[in-house]
Amino acid sequence: MSYRQQEILIETNENYGRRPPMDFCGAVFRGFAPMLGYSVRMALEGSSSSVGAPPSWLRKAADVRVTGFAERAGATILNLEAPLLGEAAQEIYSQNTLWETKPAPNETAVNVLARVLGDVRDANDESAFYDRPLLGRVARLRHLLAGVVTSIRLPAAADDQRLSAVVNEQVVESAVRLWDRTPPSAQIRLTGVLDMIRHSTRSFGLVLEGGAEVRGVLETQEQMKDLTPFLGAKVLVLGRAVYRPSGKLLRVDAHSFDSGEGQPQLFGKVPPPREKRPPIIRMKPSDQYRKGVGAFFGIWPGEESDEDFTRMLKEIRG
């Protein structure tokens, strides 16, 4: 398999350079390593988290290795070797796809994560590069920014030498706001013509009566046998609608299927979300004097679960 030499630049207020402490390195690796897999899975499968063990192609694609440390103007450089996605996920790149998020085959998991961070920085509420769980994981990178780290820079593209993707306080705050604005998923019944099935990524394409295309993701590979007989025919998909921060549909997480013939016309349209969260997160009056990450998050524990994260964001919204 071919690898690309890449760099991540970490700016700190301690100027560790090429000799960072071990506990500092551990915190950086724990924060970033899982994000590589989540980001690649989102780009290629359409969902950042799935039931069961990750597929072999995902383990290969996210197997980024650190080869050394360097220094640039006092900042710490991580020298990396990252697999080319076109070779790590060869079975996926050998097939055509309907999804616009598939990276170029000469890009890496580092580039995909950088693209996620770029869309978060720009507050792109139409992005297909993240869902709500991935936004929550970006928000939890605040742990790295609560100490000596001031910013982290990554290559946004295969040939990006400027390391233009940035993680800083503003990106973390934007992730929380996008997370907060994203409507909750909802039960859905949707009819359309089953236009595509992709076994390697458990995904399918559904063309609605008006010509709109909907992306769907299966919970398990075993569901393929229930879906395959409907290929090219009208099918009823039962599952959950997952929305973007804008309120538009991102994908359908499918639970089961049935014939779409004779179904009510109502099921031929994507229903709007039942709830649209407000874009502004209110802070408690006692926190108004704080600045930066401390002001935005208040005093939170360091290793909260996804459930705790959800609860605390609801408390902040008021």
Describe this structure in words.
The chain has 318 residues and is an alpha+beta fold. It folds into 3 domains: 3-181, no CATH class; 186-268, Beta Barrel (OB fold (Dihydrolipoamide Acetyltransferase, E2P)); 285-317, no CATH class. The chain is 31% helix and 25% strand. The strands form 2 sheets. Strands 2-3-1-4-5 form a 5-stranded antiparallel beta sheet. A hairpin with a 5-residue loop joins strand 9 and strand 10 (249-259). Helix 5 crosses helix 8.
Classification by helices and strands: alpha+beta
The count of strands amounts to 10
Helix percentage range: 25-40%
Helical stretch tally:
11
β-strand percent reads: 25-35%
Sketch the major β-sheet: 5 strands, antiparallel
What is the straight-line distance between the termini?
51 Å
Tell me the layout of helices and strands.
Blueprint: E1 3-12, H1 22-45, H2 56-61, E2 65-72, E3 75-83, H3 85-88, H4 90-93, H5 109-121, H6 132-139, H7 142-145, E4 149-154, E5 165-167, H8 169-181, E6 186-198, E7 203-207, E8 213-218, H9 224-227, E9 234-243, E10 249-259, H10 292-297, H11 306-317
Helix pairs in contact: 1-5, 5-8, 6-8
Kindly summarize this structure in a few lines:
The protein has helices at residues 22-45, 56-61, 85-88, 90-93, 109-121, 132-139, 142-145, 169-181, 224-227, 292-297, 306-317, and strands at 3-12, 65-72, 75-83, 149-154, 165-167, 186-198, 203-207, 213-218, 234-243, 249-259.
Kindly list the characteristics that best describe this protein:
10 strands; 5-stranded antiparallel sheet; OB fold (Dihydrolipoamide Acetyltransferase, E2P); 3 domains; 318 residues; 5-stranded mixed β-barrel; alpha+beta
